[in-house]
Design the sequence.
């Protein structure tokens, strides 16, 4: 059991170590890459090898994930116009990201089942999915630290209010409303809101 857990942890650490440099934001300078002589193809879709893909990772990062109009770029944001101009399908890329997320969800489910040693449909009711979605929204889109803080709040607040008895969910809901009023973009937000109740220049709001 411990050997299997160590193997999974080592695989995840290797994945993070290899993929993290590709998501690093570029601020200028000279791009220098190297690859072996006569690579089979310059395509990252066909006949690609590691020696071909690795040099193209910074190019992919700049073309598809870096928007010069944004003050702060998020690594999970795709620029559709730049992606399409490079003949890269943003829809398939987003589906790939969804599939990778589902893979990690499967890992989490396997650990949950091994820990609980019992699986029942009642363990995964709709409210569980709603809480996970609320964690992402409350934490702030594109913010990993914000999601962690939101998870602590959404899981911890009902426990903190347990002494209130039947009123604890009311207190929990009130706390959520106050957080969303004072932090509408999330606890730690890296993006401007896409929809504004009062457009800039209307003279209403901050």
Sequence:
């Amino acid at each position: 059991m411990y050997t299997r857990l160590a193997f999974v942890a080592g695989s995840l650490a290797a994945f993070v170590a290899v993929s993290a440099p590709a998501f690093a934001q570029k601020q200028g300078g000279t791009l220098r890459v190297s690859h072996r002589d006569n690579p089979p193809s310059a395509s990252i879709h066909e006949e690609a090898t590691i020696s071909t893909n690795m040099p193209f990772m910074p190019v992919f990062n700049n073309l598809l994930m870096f928007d010069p109009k944004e003050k702060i770029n998020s690594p999970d944001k795709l620029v559709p116009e730049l992606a399409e101009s490079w003949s890269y399908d943003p829809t398939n890329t987003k589906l790939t990201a969804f599939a990778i997320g589902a893979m990690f969800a499967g890992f989490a489910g396997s650990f949950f089942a091994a820990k609980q040693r019992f699986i029942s449909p009642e363990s995964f009711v709709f409210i569980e999915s709603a809480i996970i979605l609320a964690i992402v929204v409350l934490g702030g889109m594109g913010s990993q630290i914000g999601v962690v803080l939101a998870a602590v709040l959404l899981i911890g607040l009902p426990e903190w209010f347990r002494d209130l008895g039947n009123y604890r969910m009311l207190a929990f809901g009130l706390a959520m409303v106050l957080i969303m009023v004072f932090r509408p973009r999330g606890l730690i937000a890296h993006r401007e809101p896409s929809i504004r109740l009062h457009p800039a220049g209307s003279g209403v709001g901050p």
Observations:
- The helical segments are 2-19, 50-65, 80-85, 90-116, 126-139, 144-160, 168-182.
- Confidence is low (pLDDT under 50) at residues 28-39, 193-197, 201-206.
